Amino acid sequence: MAHLEMSLSEPAVDDIAPEAGTLVRTSVDRWSDAADGAHEACLVIDAAAVISAASPAACDLLGFPGPGSAIGACLFHGVLPLVDFTAMALPIPVEEVGRIPPLQPLVSRKLARGLIRLRINGEVVTVDAVSAPLWERDQVIGTLTFLCQV
Question: SS3 string of 92-114?
Answer without folding.
Answer: CCHHHHHHCCCCHHHHHCCCEEE
